[in-house]
C-alpha cells in the first residue's frame, strides 16, 4: 500500500498542487485586480485584458504540442520542464515593466500549459478503473485556485500589494515543483513510446469528424463565456454596472469558482449513476449559458442595476465545469489513437476562446469613454451593452451546438464505422 501511495498518489497530488497555482495565475490576472493594474501600470482596458490574453494565447497553442509530447514521453517527463518555465515566469512578472509584463505572462502561460494535460495522462495511467472520479477531483483542486484567486487574493493585495503577493505565489509554486520532482522521478519512468510519432496530422483527423468539431465548438465557447467573466471582466462589471464594492464583487467570483469546482465532481457522479450519460449535461449547460447572457443583456439594456446579476453569474458557474463530462466523451467517441489528440484540440479550444473573448471585451469596453472616479475608470452602459451583446450571440451558438451533440455510443458508431 505504501509503494502504491508513493509512486501513484503523491505525484498526482503534487501535480494537482502545481495545477492549483497555475489556476491562481490564470484567474487572478487581470480579473481580480483589474483596477489596481490599470491604475498602477497606466494601462487602457485593452492593455489590461491583454495581460490575460498573452497568457491564454500561448497556453492554448501549446496544448497541441504538449499533447503530442505527452503521448510519446509521458506526463511526468513533460511536467518537469513545463513547471520549471511556469515558476520562472511567475517570478519574472512581479519585477517586469512595460513589454516585459506581457513577455513574463506569456512565459508563465507556456509553462502552465504543460501541467494540465500531463496531469490528465498521469491520472488516467495511475487510476485506470476510477479515472473519471479521480480526474474530477484533480480538476476540483485546480478550480480551488480560482477560488483563492478572487476574494482571498484581492484581500491579500490590499494588505501587502500585488507585486509582493505574486512573489509569494511564485515561491510556493517552486516548492511544489521541487516536491513533485522528488517523488515523480524517484522511480524509473515508463519507457519512451518511440512508436508514437511526433506529428500533427492526427489533429486534422480529429477535426474532420463532425461530432468532434461540434463538441469542440460547444466546449470552447461554453468554457470561454464563463472564464472570461471569472478571469477578466466579471469583477469589473459587478463593480461598474451593479455598484458592488470591490471586496463583495471578489467574493461573488470566489463563490462562482467554488460552484464550478463542486459541479464538476457532481456531474461526474451523476453521469456515472445514470449509465454514463453525457449529452444531457452539455444540453443543460448550453441552455443555462444562453439564459444567463440573454438575461444580463436585458438588464443592461433596461438599465436595471440589480444585484440579481450575481445570482445569474452563480447559475452560470454551476454548469461551466464540463471537463469531467467532455473528456470521457472524447475517449468514448474516438478510436484510442485519436482520443489523446482530441483532448488536446478541446483544451486548445477552451483557452483560445478565453483569449479571444478577453481581447474582444477589452476593445468593446472602449466603445464609450470611461469616467474617472477617485482614480478608477468606470465604464458606462454603452460599453457593457456592446460586451454582453457579443457574449450573448456566442452563447446562442453554444446552445445550438449542444442540441446537435449525441450520446457517446451512437457517435462512436458513426466515427469508427
**Strand arrangement across the biggest beta sheet:** 1-2
Helix content: over 70%
From the alpha-carbon coordinates, what is the Rg to the nearest angstrom?
A: 21 Å
- Measured between the Cα atoms of the first and last residue, the distance is 43 Å
- What percentage of the residues does DSSP assign to strands (E)? under 5%
Query: Could you tell me the mean pLDDT?
Result: 88
Number of E-state strands? 2
Query: Structural class from helices and strands?
Result: mainly alpha
Quick summary:
The chain has about 425 residues and is an all-alpha fold. Helices cover about 80% and strands about 0% of the residues.
Describe the secondary structure blueprint for this structure.
Blueprint: H1 2-28, H2 34-41, H3 45-73, H4 75-92, H5 99-126, H6 131-148, H7 151-160, H8 162-184, H9 201-208, H10 210-240, H11 246-273, H12 279-301, H13 308-317, H14 323-333, H15 336-365, E1 371-373, E2 376-378, H16 381-404, H17 408-416
Antiparallel strand pairs: 1-2
Helix pairs in contact: 1-4, 1-5, 1-6, 1-8, 3-4, 3-5, 3-15, 4-5, 4-8, 5-6, 6-11, 7-8, 7-11, 9-15, 10-11, 10-12, 10-15, 10-16, 11-13, 12-13, 12-16, 14-15, 14-17, 15-16
Please, could you describe this protein's structure?
With 417 residues, the protein is mostly helical. 80% of the residues lie in helices and 1% in strands. A two-stranded antiparallel sheet has the order 1-2. The protein is globular.
Amino acid at each position: 500500500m505504501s509503494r502504491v501511495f508513493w509512486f501513484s498518489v503523491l505525484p498526482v497530488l503534487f501535480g494537482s498542487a502545481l495545477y492549483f497555482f497555475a489556476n491562481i495565475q490564470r484567474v487572478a490576472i487581470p480579473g481580480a485586480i483589474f483596477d489596481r493594474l490599470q491604475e498602477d501600470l497606466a494601462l487602457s482596458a485593452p492593455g489590461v485584458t491583454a495581460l490575460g490574453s498573452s497568457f491564454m494565447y500561448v497556453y492554448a497553442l501549446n496544448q497541441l504540442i504538449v499533447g503530442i509530447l505527452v503521448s510519446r514521453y509521458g506526463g511526468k517527463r513533460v511536467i518537469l520542464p513545463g513547471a520549471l518555465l511556469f515558476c520562472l515566469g511567475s517570478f519574472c512578472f512581479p519585477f517586469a515593466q512595460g513589454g516585459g509584463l506581457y513577455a513574463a505572462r506569456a512565459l508563465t502561460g507556456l509553462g502552465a500549459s504543460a501541467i494540465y494535460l500531463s496531469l490528465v495522462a498521469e491520472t488516467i495511467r495511475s487510476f485506470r478503473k476510477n479515472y473519471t472520479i479521480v480526474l474530477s477531483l484533480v480538476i476540483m483542486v485546480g478550480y480551488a485556485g480560482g477560488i483563492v484567486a478572487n476574494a482571498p487574493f484581492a484581500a491579500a493585495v490590499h494588505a501587502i500589494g500585488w507585486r509582493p503577493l505574486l512573489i509569494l505565489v511564485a515561491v510556493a509554486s517552486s516548492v511544489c515543483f521541487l516536491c513533485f520532482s522528488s517523488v515523480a522521478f524517484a522511480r524509473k519512468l515508463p519507457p519512451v513510446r518511440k512508436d508514437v510519432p511526433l506529428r500533427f496530422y492526427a489533429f486534422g483527423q480529429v477535426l474532420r469528424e463532425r461530432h468532434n468539431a461540434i463538441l469542440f465548438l460547444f466546449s470552447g465557447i461554453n468554457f470561454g463565456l464563463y472564464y472570461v467573466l471569472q478571469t477578466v471582466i466579471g469583477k469589473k462589471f459587478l463593480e461598474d454596472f451593479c455598484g458592488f464594492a470591490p471586496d463583495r464583487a471578489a467574493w461573488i467570483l470566489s463563490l462562482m469558482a467554488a460552484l464550478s469546482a463542486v459541479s464538476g465532481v457532481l456531474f461526474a457522479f451523476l453521469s456515472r449513476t445514470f449509465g454514463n450519460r453525457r449529452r444531457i449535461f452539455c444540453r443543460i449547460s448550453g441552455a443555462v449559458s444562453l439564459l444567463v447572457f440573454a438575461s444580463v443583456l436585458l438588464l443592461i439594456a433596461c438599465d436595471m442595476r440589480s444585484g440579481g446579476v450575481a445570482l445569474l453569474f452563480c447559475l452560470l458557474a454551476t454548469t461551466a465545469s464540463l471537463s469531467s463530462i467532455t473528456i470521457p466523451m472524447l475517449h468514448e467517441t474516438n478510436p484510442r489513437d485519436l482520443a489523446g489528440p482530441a483532448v488536446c484540440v478541446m483544451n486548445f479550444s477552451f483557452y483560445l476562446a478565453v483569449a479571444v473573448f478577453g481581447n474582444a471585451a477589452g476593445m468593446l469596453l472602449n466603445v464609450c469613454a470611461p469616467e474617472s472616479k477617485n482614480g478608477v475608470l468606470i465604464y458606462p452602459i454603452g460599453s457593457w451593452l456592446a460586451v454582453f451583446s457579443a457574449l450573448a450571440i456566442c452563447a446562442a451558438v453554444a446552445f445550438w451546438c449542444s442540441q446537435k451533440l449525441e450520446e457517446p455510443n451512437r457517435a462512436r458508431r458513426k466515427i469508427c464505422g
